[in-house]
Every structure is written in C-alpha cells, then in structure tokens.
Automatic annotation (TrEMBL):
Keywords: Hydrolase. SMART domains: Asparaginase (SM00870). It comes from Brevibacillus fulvus. It comes from the Bacteria. InterPro entries: AsnASE_II, Asp/glu_Ase-like_sf, Asparaginase/glutaminase-like, Asparaginase/glutaminase_AS1, Asparaginase/glutaminase_AS2, Asparaginase_C, L-asparaginase_C, L-asparaginase_N. The active site is at T12, T12 (o-isoaspartyl threonine intermediate), T87. One of its GO terms (molecular function) is asparaginase activity. This is asparaginase.
Length: 321
C-alpha cells in the first residue's frame, strides 16, 4: 500500500467551536480523528509538528517545515506528503515550499474553513482528497499543490478569496489545475515551469506596503530607519504610485534596498506603461523591479528567497520576469 506522510501544523481543521461560537485550537491530536477515513487510500504516518493558528506562522516556521519534509522524505520512501495548515497563511506556506523544495513526490497542503465539530465540517473531505491526490502518480513533479473543496491549485497562483466560504481557495488568473471527483483525480492543466531556490535561512527582513489614494509619505518614513533587506510595494493597477511616496522609494533605492512592484489588482501583471509622475515608466527608470503577476504576500516570500542568491537588481528582475 502507498505510504503518505501527514504533517499537521494546526489551523481550523484542528480547532473546535464552543456554544458561544468562538473557535479555539484543540489539542494536537484533533486531525487524528480523521485518520480512520484515510486508511483505505494509504498507510498514513503522522507527525504533529505544530499546533498553530496560521496567523502565527512565520517564514522561519515555514523553513522548519521544509527542513523536516526534506529529512523525513530522505529517510523513508513516501509516495507523497500531505500537510494540514490554517487557511489564513496557507498560500504563503504553500508557495514558500514550492520555491524551496526540490522533490518529485507530491506535496499537498490543505486545511478547513469550518472547525472540526461544526456541521458540514470540510476538514475530513479536504484531507481525504489530499491523500487521494498525494498517491496519484499524475500529481508527481507538479510542485506544491493546494487541495481544497474538490479542487487542485498550483501554489503560485492560489489565494484565499473568501473569509468563510469553503470554496475560498481560487486561482483568479488561471483557475484550478485539477479537480477531484468521487472516483478520480483529474488534471486539466499543467502548472507553469517550476522554480527552485536552495536557501540557507528565511530571515530576510522584507516588508510589504500597499498603495492607497492620498497615501501619506510620513507613513513610510519609518522604512528609512529600519534594517530592511528589500521592500515590496502593492501599487495601483498596471503599476503606478502616488507621486508623494517617490522620495522615500528613491532614498531606499539609493541605500541599495531592492524595491519590488506588484499590483493590488488580483489579475494581470505590472508593466512600465504609464509615463506620468509616479507612473510605471518612471518607477522602472528609478530601478524598481517589476513582478510577474504574483500577489504581494507571495512576491515578498520570493524576494526573501531570491535575495539569498543575489542583490543585483537586473539579476533579481530576471528572476521575476
Ligand atoms: N480556516 C482557518 O484555518 C483560519 C484560521 N484562522 C487559521 O488560519 O488558522
């Protein structure tokens, strides 16, 4: 029988709701209750690595998880790995692992929107679907997969789109790469080329800021006093910013801090098209790096990882092209 490594890290899948409708973490073993439903699909070995709500997850913790996956998969020939995780930062952990793991076997990440004791809890079915995906040979060499609500999404494109709906995970630009029916795991798209960055740590200090109309440069003043390694800016539309913030960005660039531009739109890419004060043309000529459709939180993780290879702006730009 296929052998799957299940790594639990916490989240609503391991929480319960009380009579006052508040949701709190249970003990480490909550996901174990679902295990009897999984044994007809695979032999499951479980590691209860963390029991954290996902807002408590940091890049350092993601790196710990990555290292543990490498260690365990080097020791035992698993058919696949399934990770349970809170949904709030699930896409970030999924993308971090996608960039930094070099494995052929499927690595699937899932969770739940409803806590374990709610009617219609989605944790059990998401976990079963994840195990089924992890043992399917068609799931190999596809990078880290997010399995949720009968859909399979590529880590680079998936995002949490709804605060409570069980269909929260969507890939707005490209849609899911596969679906899970009662009998089959079916892929209808191939994920784009995979990227792999070997890393030594996950400690780079890279904040993310979002542009808003009338943005006050004083809000950003603190950035000049911080020991930051890079900055990600979620700009308007095609990649434009209020002119008032340009002096701060110029000072950061002069200090050698790479500045990466993404859009606050969740579809499309930033481009150096608009030629007015604060427009993409000007940002490009200042040396701002343009991203390629990643959302802000993922672009930040990629910059953290990429900065371990180089600080050279044109080399970084190539990594984001
Ligand atoms: N549905 C969830 O898992 C949300 C929870 N707040 C978490 O991310 O841990």
């Amino acid at each position: 029988m296929e052998k799957v490594l299940l790594i639990n890290t916490g989240g609503t899948i391991a929480m319960s709701m009380d009579a006052s409708e508040t949701v709190k973490p249970l003990d480490d073993q909550a996901v174990d209750k679902i295990l009897p439903f999984l044994t007809s699909y695979a032999e499951i070995e479980t590691i209860n690595l963390f029991n954290l709500p996902s807002p408590h997850i940091t890049p350092q913790i993601m790196n710990e998880l990555k290292t543990r996956i490498e260690q365990e998969t080097a020791r035992t020939a698993y058919s696949g790995v399934v990770i349970t995780h809170g949904t709030d930062t699930l896409e970030e952990t999924a993308y971090f692992l996608d960039l930094t793991l070099s494995l052929s076997i499927p690595v699937v990440i899932t969770g739940a929107m409803r806590s374990s004791n709610e009617l219609g809890a989605d944790g059990p079915v998401n976990l079963i679907s994840s195990v089924r995906t992890a043992v399917d040979p068609a799931s190999r060499d596809k990078g880290v997969l997010v399995v949720f609500n009968d859909e399979i999404h590529a880590a680079a494109h998936v995002t949490k789109t709804h605060t409570s709906n069980v269909a929260t995970f969507q890939s707005p630009q490209f849609g899911p790469i596969g679906t899970i029916s009662k009998k089959h795991v079916h892929y209808h798209h191939a994920p784009l080329a995979r990227e792999y960055y070997p890393i030594r740590h996950a400690d780079a200090n890279v904040p993310l800021i979002k542009a808003v109309a009338g943005m006050n440069p004083e809000w950003l003043q603190f950035l000049l006093d911080q020991p930051i390694d890079g900055l990600v800016v979620e700009a308007f539309g095609l990649g434009n910013l209020p002119p008032a913030v340009l002096p701060i960005l110029k000072q950061l660039l002069q200090k050698g801090v790479p500045v990466l531009l993404v859009s606050r739109c969740y579809n499309g890419q930033v481009q150096d098209v608009y030629d007015y004060e604060g427009g993409g043309r000007q940002l490009k000529s200042m040396g701002v790096i343009f991203s390629n459709g990643l959302n802000g939180q993922k672009a930040r993780l990629k910059l953290m990882v990429a900065l371990q290879q180089t600080r050279d702006v044109s080399a970084l730009q190539q990594m984001f092209d």
